[in-house]
Every structure is written in C-alpha cells, then in structure tokens.
Amino acid sequence: MFASTASIFSNPWNANVSLAGGVAHGGTQKGWFSRATEMFQAGIWPWFGTSDDAMEDLMPLGRTSLTSRPTDADNGSGAPSPEPGGARDIPFYHLPVLLNEVLDVLQPEPGKLIFDGTLGGGGHTEAILQKGARVVAMDQDDEALRHATERLKGYADRFCALKGNFRDFPTVLGEAGISGLDGMLIDIGVSSRHLDAPERGFSFNKEGPLDMRMDTSGPITAADIVNTYPQEELERILKVYGEEPQARKIARAIVQARGREAFRTTLQLANLISSVCPKFSKRHPATLTFQALRIETNQELAVLEDFLKAAPRWLKPGGRLAVITFHSLEDRIVKHTFQQQSQVWLDRPEWPAPRPNPDCVYKLLFRKPLEASEGELSLNPRARSARLRGVERLSS
Ligand SMILES: C[S@@+](CC[C@H](N)C(=O)[O-])C[C@H]1O[C@@H](n2cnc3c(N)ncnc32)[C@H](O)[C@@H]1O
User: Fold this and answer.
1) Which fold has domain 201-299?
2) The pTM is what?
3) Residue 307 Cα: closest atom of ligand 1
4) pLDDT tens, 210-223?
C-alpha cells in the first residue's frame, strides 16, 4: 500500500523551509509539503494512487531483492534511523552508485532539505532519509516514482516525490512552495530497470519497441528519430552524442533500410548495424548508436545544462550539489560548468590585471571526479563509468 494522504497531511514539514510565494492559496500560510499534497489531490501526480497490483508488473522476476527499508523504529522524528531491518520484498530496480561518496558530499542530517532530481529506485534518497534529512525528489518516469514511493513509504513524513523533468525543477519546486535547499543531487541517465525491461526499448540485446523515452509521455521516440530525421542529422547525432566512428556508414544504412520498411523494434535496428559494422571488440556494434539515440530522445545534454544553470539560485550558502554522470559528454559539461562557476578571478592577456569572476558561486569540493572503488565495482559493474563531481555554494 502507498502512503496515505492522512499521514502526509499530519506532517510538520513547514519548519525550516522558506516559502517561495510567502503566502499560499487562500491567504493562509502553509508549508510546501501541504501545498504539494493539495496539488497531488488535484490529480497532478496521479502515480501517488497506484495500487500494489501495479507494482507486481514492474519488476523482472527472479532477481534478488536488494532494497532495504526503514525499521518500525523509525518514527519520523527526524533522528537517524537505526540500521535497516533487512531487505523486504521489493523487487530489484537499481543499485545506487557511489553511495558513500554522495553522502560525504551532501552531508545529510536532521533539519536539512535535500533535492534528489533523479529518484530512480530511491537508493540514494533512502540513504539520505536514513541520515535524518528531508527529501523532495523528482523523476520523469512513472515506474520509478511508483517503485520508490512504495519503497520509501515509511518516510512519508519527510519524503515527497514529484513527477517531472529535473530541467523544470524551479517551476515544480516553486509551485510546491519550496525554496532554499541544503543539498541537490542528480544521478543522470537510465536506471538498471530501464536497461533490463525490453518493453522500454533501451537495450540492443532484447527485442522491444524502439522507444527509449524515460518519460513515456514524451513527444518523440527513438523510432521517430530513425524513421524521420534526415541522413545528415542522423549522422551528426551519432557522431556528437555517440562519438561513433562509423556514424556516416550507419546513418546511410538506416536511411536505405527505412525506405524498405520503417524501424519499429530494437533488434531490427541492432541487427542492421551489426550487418554493416563488423564486431571488432567485445562491445556490440550498436552500443554507441543506442547511446546517441537515447540522448537525443530524452534531450539529455540540454536538460543537464538547464539544470546546472538554475541550481545555484536554489542552494543556500554552504549548500552542496552532487552530480553523477555516466559518459564523457555529460562529465565534460559538468566539469566546465563547475570550473566556470568556481573560478574566483578571470584573466585575459589584453586585461591589465585579473578581474573578479561575476559567475563565481561555488567552491569546488575536489578537482578530479570520484569513481567507484574496486569493492563497489565487484558488486556493481554498472558503476564502472560513474563519475561524481561536487561543489559547495558560496555565501555571495
Ligand atoms: C541512474 S537512475 C537514478 C538512480 C537513483 N539515484 C537510485 O538511487 O536508485 C536515473 C533516474 O533518473 C531519471 N531521470 C533521468 N533524467 C531525468 C530528468 N531529466 N528528469 C527527471 N528524471 C530523470 C530516470 O528516469 C531514472 O529513473
């Protein structure tokens, strides 16, 4: 069962949260959580009402339950929970990467409000909640929201999940009356669940619709891209987003093949790519094309840039931002943005002296990104390309 609205209404989240709008609807000052609840009741977040039956359809069978949830002793007092009471019967969804490192950066504790823009399976959020902080989370994927809400129902008094793209977080949090965050996290890309579920169309190994949308109400699928984009545009996407050396050859083959029959499934595309690009390494020849199509379908680089631009205004002085990326294109964007926003002085050869950087809002917490340890990799090989960067908001 999901957290009841009664338990949500009875929570005292107003404390320490400043209201973006000051006075809420109807002239009564309310905390953001109760305003968020009103929005939910108005039907804006229908996933809140999902039944247990729907959960059964979510997960692949035969996977070990890796999740843990709060013990009954967690009374929502804001104090750190005792050790979790052991894994419960929630099917596997996603294993959070760089978990201890994220906690080191965000330093969650009672009284702090943390934003998790990529809730996913709820692993990072759960660890933050276990430290006593409050979490407002977002995900654009209904399945992730259903799963994590069920997993985290024991924290309903300190946890709220909102549907949406983290690119739109200023609007979503603003409408819920939230401002002034102590920490922000995004752990971008797809979850293990996305890759494991053939029907989502992310995997070149499993037959499924060529979809790849994280938000299944999104305007464009991967099939739309391969069936309609001009050849030059396909080539550009494969080159830029996939760094695919065979971009031209693959784009040409796609355009020829779609003249005979439109692409509908993942294996249709993967097999075509295998037929024109022989396999030289362990990597499947369609790997980079699938990465490129996923990025284009979900506009992943553009949403990351928008998020990074907006984040500083939402962090309190001393508040921290942690970003986990999974490929070099994303990491480059994060690295350059953080560098620009943490450089105290700017200098140019034509200037007589260095000038203060008006965009300096952060202190870099570490220069090189953090990567998964051998121990983590042995448990979770998918963490091998994860990179974590972190910054702290300056006071002015
Ligand atoms: C790598 S998983 C996050 C896993 C999560 N940290 C955990 O511990 O389980 C990425 C999640 O972020 C979501 N996501 C990716 N890009 C997003 C975006 N722009 N806005 C909202 N959610 C996004 C995906 O739907 C997916 O559920």
Assistant:
1) DNA polymerase; domain 1 (1.10.150)
2) 0.81
3) 19
4) 999 999 999 999 99
